[in-house]
Amino acid sequence: YLGISLLCQYIFNLLTMYAFSVTNSSCSGFALTGFPGLEIYYLWISVPFSIIYVTVFLGNCMVLHVIWTEPSLHQPMFYFLAMLALTDLCMGLSTINTVLGILWGFIQEISLDVCIAQSYFIHGLSCMESSVLLAMSFDRYIAICNPLRYSSILTNDKIVKIGVAILCRSSMLIPPVIIRLKFLNYCRPHFLSHSFCLHQDLIRMAYIRFNSFYGLALVICTLLLDSVLIFVSYVMILHTVLSIASQEERIKSLQTCVSHISAVLVFYIPIIGLTMVHRFGKHLSPLVHVLMGNIYILFPPLMNPIIYSIKTQQIRDLKSAVNIYLKVNLKIYKG
What we know:
Residues 59-308 form the G-protein coupled receptors family 1 profile domain. It comes from Peromyscus maniculatus bairdii (Prairie deer mouse). This is Olfactory receptor. Keywords: Cell membrane, G-protein coupled receptor, Membrane, Olfaction, Receptor, Sensory transduction, Transducer, Transmembrane, Transmembrane helix. With 335 residues, this protein is mainly alpha-helical. It has one domain: Rhopdopsin 7-helix transmembrane proteins (Up-down Bundle), CATH 1.20.1070.10. It contains twelve helices and two strands. It has helices spanning 2-20, 42-69, 76-103, 112-145, 150-153, 156-179, 199-206, 209-242, 247-255, 258-280, 286-311, 313-334; strands at 29-31, 109-111. Strands 1-2 form a two-stranded antiparallel sheet. It is globular and about 60 Å long. The termini are far apart. The relative contact order is 0.13. Residues 17-27 have low confidence and may be disordered.
């Protein structure tokens, strides 16, 4: 899972390097949109975005490091958390080149091939994250509704198979709708709505019904289906929790689900918001589209390490150690 994700990121970086060398042409490239009307402030805007990306990388790497090195966290729930952190890390890597490239003035447009590649990674990783959240809801369901069989159901072999299934699902469902973009004629002005490439943007410029309907069917079969299954799992969890006689035990059981519920909301709310903006917000300012797009890309990878560090003592301890280390070195530097 890690090796394939890193290989995909390496391929995308090579394609991005090629994009920077493409000569400006309305036929060969697509103009990326930064923050319309705020061009003179790009250098200042780049500061918080750079901090966000650094936080995304450090936070998710911290989660992966703690799970890898702490034997007490070698449990199914934390294996799924490692998958989530790896997916979030790759999501950040897939967009940093274009988002910061625009703000730093390194890039204004992107070639069709690289745009398609970036679109593949963004939508593939979104599908992967949705699948991981579904797997985590299954973990919570087994832990609460069938605790005596938890260790026998979620064995290491089962977790590996679930991870492979998640990777195969994302890798096989996304390519048909993305690859077809290569063979479309883009007759409208080549201006993207965001500082990265999304399937919706390319379809809007090509205007072809088949690909649009296939994309809708893909969303229904992945994100919508996953969200429904997650909801059903929590209905069953709630039914089991309410049957517990002790109120203290009820609260304790529900507390084990707080982090996962928060991660689900952090992931799905931006997706719903961006979908609504694309579908019904054509009259809105382009700045709204840009902001919603960046929230969709950056908010889940930024928040998930924070959400899980609150509930995981080992992650909090490492975070405190890093903060102390930085403060000590800062004092030495100032002195």
